[in-house]
Structures are given as C-alpha cells and as structure tokens.
Write a structure and sequence with these properties.
The protein is an alpha/beta fold. Helices cover 53% and strands 12% of the residues. α9 packs across α10, α10 packs antiparallel against α11 and α10 crosses α13.
Length: 365
C-alpha cells in the first residue's frame, strides 16, 4: 500500500516589526490564563511589549524564567505551575530550548501552545517535536507531538537586535530543507510527520532555498546593523516557517545525520545549523549532484559565513571523521532515506572530499 501523503503546519503564523504589540489581538482566541516560559533574554526583550498588548484586558499572565535546558525535571516543574495556576495557554519565549520546553509542557497538560522566538537559529518554532534532555544535560529523547504549535508570532525587530551568528546558523539549518526533502521525495521515505511528502511540502522547501540564495547576504548586513529590511524579513520567514514546515513535512537525510554523528563525539561547540550546512554539502557529494549545483551551495555558504570545511565545525583529526561516519550511519538514522543506502566507508570518503573541495574554494577566494 502506498504511503499516505500529509502536511501539517501551525494554525497561525504572524511576523513583522513590533508584532508583539499585537500579541493579545492575534492570540486571544487561545485562552485567558497564560503561562509564559521565558529564557532570561526572552523575558528582557519581550515582556514589556507583551504586557502592553494586553491593554486593559483582565487575562491572567504568569511569567517563569526556565532553567536553561529542556530537561525532564524542568518540564515537571512547569507542569506543576500549570496545574497550580489553572493555566489555559502555554507560551514559549526565547530560543530553541525555551520553545521545546513550552511545547512539551503544553503537550503533557493538553493545552494549546504559542511560540515567540527571540532568535532564528533553528526551525524549532513551527515544528511538531521537541528535543528532551536528562537533568544532567545528556540527550533523552525526541518527543513527537500529534500537532504543530497553534500559533507562532515573530517580532522582526527583536530578531534584528539578536547577534547575527544566530541568523546565519538558522540559514544553515534552512539550507538542508530542500535537499533533504528532495532525497525523501525520490525514495518515498517518510517525513518527520511519518507521512509521504506532498508537492506542497516540496514547493515550500524549494522556496526556502531560493529565498536563502536571493536574500541571505543582504539579511546578514541588515542584522549586523540591527535594522529590519525586506531581505531580513524574507530570511526570518525562511528560517522559521519555510524551513520548519518544509522539514517537518519533507523529511531528513544526510545533513541531519551528519549533525547527529558529530554530537556523538561529545564536547562539540559548532551550532546545529552550521553542521547541517556542511552536511548538506556532504549529501550533494554522495548524490553525485551536478557540479554547478554543488558550487552554488558552497558559494552561498561562504557568502553568509557558513562552514565549507570540517575544521570550521571543530573536526580536526581522522579518528573524529571515522567516528562521525560510523555514528551517522547507525540504524534508524535519516541518512538511510537516500536512494542508494550509505555505508560508513562511503560517508567517510564524502566527508574527506567535501572538506578538500571546501579548502580549495577558500584558497581560491
């Protein structure tokens, strides 16, 4: 029987300069008693605007600074807050960890969740999953939800004031979206929602890539100067919505397996999106993609400051490369969604080749 195709998205997506001043107007359909799960910086950047949006409304608002990682213990603590305060809506305010925590708390308590990202370093705001850690910071599980967040609201003025490295990392995460979805589409592999990949998902993923190429460099300049421009708006939408919905409904392949293999080394510091960008180049080498396509992606990476060599993601020894090649190919990894299955030896060779091509490109620059 053919795999059923499906697509899932947030119920509502709102984006724009000072959009948080319209938070209550846009989100009031969700409930009247609010728990805001905030990172430290998320609270500082967003609290005043959120409060202003409520005006004279008598809704209950409770703010909690969360503990830093989306851990089992932190989720349990916030579940108790929900129950004690009779909360109706959970809101995640901050980066990926605050967002993942809010999604998990809302899921376990059977409540709607709204997301306010303060950086766009990953596509977490729109996806129907969380990465959950143990209380000591070690990985616990991927928690998949039966639905995506009810609503996402992105204040582009907040994003413009965040360090540019987060925007760039988000572009790296978004870069994998089209190429990984394309690989899954070719093999009828499952999306992250465990359905077949729709033509709509492919169109969103392709638009994501085209937006990166068209607007990426100008968006970096805008963010470096803390200003909101049409190019920055476009990249924020690509990093958050197009990448999130595209990846959720398009599926993963080599780029994310490479990241998972890299984390198995322990102690790495390269951002998730930087690793996904390099992994995308590795995937193109494995596919035997047209040289012009590989060069286009490689040139894009260099133009916005994403890595094209292993050293740029902290990999400096042959032993490290071998471990990554082994760990990226374990059973259940998304690398097996490729048309021709990939062995550790093949991945090792592709990692070396991609790195060498990157070094040559940097020398020629």
């Amino acid at each position: 029987m053919a795999r059923l195709r499906l697509i899932r998205t947030p119920q509502k997506y709102v984006q724009g300069r000072d959009s948080l001043l319209s938070f209550y107007e846009e989100m009031s359909f969700l409930g009247k008693k609010w728990l805001f799960v905030c990172s430290n910086s998320g609270y500082k950047m967003c609290h005043e605007k959120i409060e202003k949006s409520f005006g004279s409304a008598e809704d209950v608002r409770h703010y909690e600074i969360f503990g830093g990682i989306s851990s089992v213990g932190e989720i349990e603590r916030l579940k108790k807050v929900v129950e004690d305060k009779d909360i109706e809506v959970v809101v995640g305010v901050g980066g990926g960890s605050a967002i993942d925590t809010a999604k998990a708390v809302a899921h376990y308590e059977g409540l709607p969740v709204s997301i306010i990202p303060t950086v766009v370093a990953t596509d977490a705001p729109c996806t129907g999953l969380s990465v959950i850690y143990n209380d000591d910071g070690t990985f616990n599980t991927y928690l998949f939800y039966p639905k995506n967040p009810e609503a996402v609201i992105v204040d582009t003025d907040v994003i413009a004031k965040a360090p540019v490295k987060f925007l760039t990392a988000g572009m790296g995460d978004a870069l994998g979206t089209y190429f990984e979805a394309r690989a899954c589409y070719r093999t009828d592999a499952p999306s992250l929602e465990n359905g077949g990949v729709t033509r709509t998902a492919m169109a969103i993923a392709e638009l994501c890539y085209n937006t990166l190429k068209e607007c990426g460099v100008a968006a970096v300049h805008a963010c470096e100067n803390n200003v909101v421009t049409p190019d920055l708006e476009a990249i924020i939408e690509a990093n958050v919505y197009l990448s999130g919905v595209g990846a959720d409904n398009g599926g993963l392949a080599v780029a994310h397996s490479f990241y998972n293999g890299l984390t198995a080394l322990g102690g790495h510091s390269a951002p998730h999106g930087d690793c996904v960008a390099f992994g995308t180049l590795v995937q193109l080498v494995l596919e035997g993609a047209p040289k012009a396509e590989f060069k286009e992606v490689q040139d894009f990476c260099m133009s916005v400051g994403l890595p094209v060599t292993l050293e740029e993601v902290g990999i400096t020894t042959d032993d490290q490369i071998k471990v990554i090649a082994e760990k990226s190919c374990v059973e259940g990894e998304s690398i097996h969604n490729m048309v021709a299955d990939v062995s550790p030896a093949q991945l090792y060779d592709a990692l070396i080749a991609t790195d060498s091509l990157g070094k040559a490109a940097k020398e020629a620059k």
